[in-house]
Amino acid sequence: MNIPIVFEDDWLVIVDKPSGLLTIPTPKKEKRTLTSILNEDLEQRGILYRLHPCHRLDRETSGLVIYAKGKSVQKKMMDEFRDRQIKKTYIAFVAGLPAHDQGQITSNIEGASALTTYKVIGRKSGFSVVEVSPLTGRTNQIRIHFKEIGHPLLGETKFAFRRDFTIKAKRLCLHAQALEFRHPESGKIIRLEAALPQDLTAFLNKH
């Protein structure tokens, strides 16, 4: 499987994950994941190190995932995520037209504080294209927050019913578009982007 590499140096590999692929196995112990594909490729090429994921994306979410070449670098990156030092930007297609062009959602998730900011960057017939920044890292944060304000993500099946949508999408319309962080070894600021994937671009063109 062709996994695009967006950035690579002696410590990190950052890839553009396609939709439909888990980052790591769930308790069901799936054998084919993004991590297993990348590490099998390294093994086949005779490369001795292994890649360790520093965070994860949902199966249906596409976009940027950071891998570390070694456990010590992985820990440093995971600490950056925990300390909210990594700026994450997503593109989401949400049902309906939010009342405000930008805003923030602050409702708690499972008893923990959560903050999501958003900006509407496109209005279509029956849905909106939104740039989203989760400032906290709660599980399913973007999906839960937009459901709570009455604008669930198109293609949502976990936090909304398909019958609730007038516009049907084949998958969750969420893409991890950009990352900005301080490199754990060089200290340089790294800014990366992954273009909207072909299926979401085609969906926009169709609607």
Mind explaining what this structure looks like?
There is one protein chain. This protein has 207 residues and is α+β, with helices and mostly antiparallel strands. The protein has helices at residues 34-44, 71-82, 141-148, 198-206; strands at residues 5-8, 12-17, 52-53, 62-68, 87-95, 102-105, 116-123, 127-134, 174-182, 189-193. The chain has two domains: 5-86 and 182-188, 2-Layer Sandwich (Pseudouridine synthase), CATH 3.30.2350; 87-164, Pseudouridine synthase (2-Layer Sandwich). Strands 1, 2, 3, 4, 5, 6, 7, 8, 9 and 10 form a ten-stranded mixed β-sheet that branches. Strand 1 and strand 2 (12-17) form a beta hairpin. The protein is globular, with a radius of gyration of 17 Å. 32% of the residues are buried. The mean pLDDT is 93.
